[in-house]
Structures are given as structure tokens and as C-alpha cells.
Design a protein that fits this description.
With about 60 residues, the chain is mainly alpha-helical. It contains two helices and no strands. The chain has one domain. The protein is elongated.
Length: about 60
């Protein structure tokens, strides 16, 4: 597997994780579980940051090569 495919796979995994967090946040909020929703929101933010860092790293690699 080349780096490009590995980046794409990891990006997709992060995006799927973000979507799962968003669904769980909605479920928690509709069930009145605001504390659990806050925890999931934190996890979502961490995944978003990881995805952003991955994009920046990929751009840096493309510019270097």
C-alpha cells in the first residue's frame, strides 16, 4: 500500500468516526443526556483536529515531493 492510499484510508476512517460521534451526540441530546453529549463532542473535536493535521501533512508531503 502506498502513502497516498494509506492517507485516504485514514482520512476515511476519521470521517466515519466523526459521523458516528455526530449521530451519538444527536441521540444523547434527544435522550436528555447532555453530559454524554459533551463527552462525544470532545471526541468529535479531537477527530476533526486529527483530520485537519492529516490534510496539512499530506499537502506538505505533496509540496516536498
Amino acid at each position: 500500500m502506498n502513502n497516498y492510499q494509506a492517507y485516504n484510508d485514514f482520512y476515511l476512517d476519521l470521517s466515519n468516526g466523526i459521523q458516528r460521534c455526530e449521530a451519538q451526540i444527536a441521540d444523547f441530546l434527544s435522550g436528555g443526556k447532555s453530559e454524554e453529549a459533551k463527552v462525544m463532542l470532545g471526541k468529535r473535536e479531537a477527530l476533526l483536529e486529527m483530520r485537519y493535521m492529516l490534510e496539512a501533512y499530506r499537502k506538505e508531503e505533496e509540496n516536498a515531493g
